[in-house]
Backbone:
């Protein structure tokens, strides 16, 4: 007679694995950071009237989440949209703007919020410089008023939703899914990259630049030969609009770096990872650490600090580019960067579970 | 909040007297991405003219001079670009067919923030080979252009990019890659399922004995 035992064993095994999958599908409980973001999002939405709320809080779907760019207002974005999601700061009352920025601050780390606002301030400087020579009726605008805050989906401690904060040279995209929050893809940039405000010199992306030059100069000649690409790279390869694409890694592999050099590489990546709050950043840094052996560092341009150079960090769960725009001595004053995760942009990994 | 910002703005020092344009002025940035497939090569090129050279590009695009870019004019410009691209696989020319072209508004192009997005593909013989070499060269507007060219990570796990050798300006690249034999994806699960059933059946038979 046919023995059913092995078949029953197989069925039990399959049933157990289904239970295990089902358990993982439940969203993990929210952290305090998510709860704070939800409270801040609800507080912001409560300051808005109905029509403002309809603009500020939109559906989260595969199309809406991709609407962000490096470009200024008045231009068509790479994805074809002509306006960012959400409400712009210039259309908010002071209490609304305060609540909007409190939401951004609640979602990012202190350092991340500072960086974002310094990029906003740089664009205000650019607006001040541009306005006198702007042709009447020109649609392109720079400045703080043209930065948008948007909530995609319903703020929740269990379900997936998103915060976008963006304008010219800024595209912060935070996807929150229970205890997980994911910053990729995110764009930062700056023009001017150095300016003075209240007697202080501000460099929104100064640490990124300085840490990268320190790392390339900490490599020995053989490592540097591997890292330095033999050609110029004059822009981001996978900038805004290039979602879902990934290029072949190049440069020096971190498995050949010393522990100290690897630490420098991770600390450089932290400039992007650390835009998010401590807990999310710590989890991401752990992921980068575990994939460090398969991470590459590539460089194009001079290695003398003060000059403009392109660099890229690419690993199993990270893709970062830093690209000065233009050429010659002026390229250090106009920077574009991109931060992606080939495995988890828009929290794809969490939402797929 | 606004008052504080206004006060802060007043303190901003304007250090630069250069052009306030946000983007490169006198360069035509042409960024190419190459997708390698078993029997096809796909090419995406984003072309971004700077503000001071945009009028020349607009003149090229706007053949009838009506200050509008019709689909026909966009298509015609795309064909001109493709004629300037050299694409060869293992020394043999790959004929490119344009799949799509998108052009920003004339205003955006004039301000140096517009883009022409071109997508094309070419069929290649699906040979399994330890090493193939794709030669790419962009001869479009060499006088004013800066270039990028990169191979995208192949979606087919059987295709591996081995090396990308470029010239100093990234105008030209030799992309070396290998193709290993592949199992048709639709056969994975049926074969795996049949193997599992066979093992269960064998085990039940042996227990019977």
Residues:
């Amino acid at each position: 007679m046919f023995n059913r035992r092995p078949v029953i064993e197989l069925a039990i095994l399959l049933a157990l694995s289904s239970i295990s999958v089902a358990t993982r599908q439940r969203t993990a409980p929210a952290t305090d950071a998510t709860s704070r973001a939800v409270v801040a999002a609800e507080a912001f939405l409560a300051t808005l009237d109905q029509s403002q709320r309809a603009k500020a809080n939109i559906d989260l779907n595969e199309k809406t989440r991709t609407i962000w760019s490096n470009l200024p207002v008045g231009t068509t974005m790479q994805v074809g949209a002509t306006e960012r999601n959400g409400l712009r700061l210039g259309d908010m009352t002071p209490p609304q703007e305060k609540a909007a920025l409190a939401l951004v601050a609640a979602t990012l780390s202190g350092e991340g919020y500072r960086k974002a606002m310094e990029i906003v301030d740089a664009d205000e400087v650019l607006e001040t410089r541009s306005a006198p020579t702007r042709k009447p009726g020109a649609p392109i605008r720079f400045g703080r008023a043209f930065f948008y805050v948007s909530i995609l989906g319903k703020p929740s401690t269990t379900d997936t939703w998103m915060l976008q904060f963006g304008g010219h040279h800024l595209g912060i995209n935070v996807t929150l899914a229970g205890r997980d929050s994911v910053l990729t893809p995110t764009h930062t940039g700056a023009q001017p990259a150095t300016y003075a405000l209240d007697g202080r010199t501000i460099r929104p992306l100064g640490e990124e630049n300085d840490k990268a030059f320190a790392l390339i100069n900490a490599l020995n000649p053989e490592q540097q030969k591997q890292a330095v690409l033999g050609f110029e790279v004059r822009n981001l390869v996978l900038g805004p609009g290039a979602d879902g694409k990934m290029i072949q890694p190049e440069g020096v592999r971190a498995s050949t770096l010393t522990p100290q050099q690897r630490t420098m590489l991770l600390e450089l990546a932290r400039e992007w990872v650390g835009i998010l709050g401590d807990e999310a950043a710590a989890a991401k840094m752990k992921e980068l650490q575990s994939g460090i052996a398969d991470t590459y560092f590539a460089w194009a341009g001079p290695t003398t600090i003060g000059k403009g150079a392109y660099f890229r960090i690419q690993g199993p769960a990270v893709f970062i580019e830093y690209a000065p725009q233009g050429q010659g001595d002026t390229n250090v004053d106009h920077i574009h960067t991109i931060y992606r995760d080939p495995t988890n942009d828009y929290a794809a990994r969490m939402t797929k579970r | 909040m606004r008052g504080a910002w206004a006060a802060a703005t007043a303190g901003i020092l304007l250090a630069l007297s250069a052009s306030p344009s946000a983007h490169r002025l006198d360069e035509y940035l042409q960024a190419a991405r190459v997708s390698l497939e078993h029997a096809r090569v796909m090419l995406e090129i984003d072309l971004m003219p700077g503000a001071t050279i945009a009028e020349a590009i607009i003149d090229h695009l706007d053949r009838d001079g009506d200050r509008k870019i019709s689909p026909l004019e966009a298509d015609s410009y795309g064909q001109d670009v493709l004629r300037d691209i050299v694409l060869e696989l293992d020394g043999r020319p790959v004929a490119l067919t344009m799949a799509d072209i998108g052009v920003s508004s004339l205003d955006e192009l004039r301000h140096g923030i517009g883009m022409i997005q071109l997508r094309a593909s070419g069929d290649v013989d699906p040979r399994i080979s330890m090493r193939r070499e794709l030669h790419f060269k962009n001869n479009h507007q060499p006088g004013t252009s800066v270039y990028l060219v990169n191979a995208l990570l192949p979606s087919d796990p059987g295709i591996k990019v081995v090396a990308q050798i470029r010239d100093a300006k990234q105008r030209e690249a030799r992309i070396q890659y290998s193709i290993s034999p592949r199992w048709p994806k639709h056969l994975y699960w049926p074969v795996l399922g049949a193997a599992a059933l066979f093992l269960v059946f064998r085990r039940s038979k042996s227990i019977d004995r």
Remarks:
- Chain B has one domain: 2-183.
- The first helix of chain B runs from residue 2 to 10.
- Helices of chain B lie at 2-10, 54-61, 71-83, 106-110, 188-208.
- The beta strands of chain B are 28-36, 40-49, 85-89, 92-93, 97-103, 116-123, 129-138, 145-151, 159-166, 172-179.
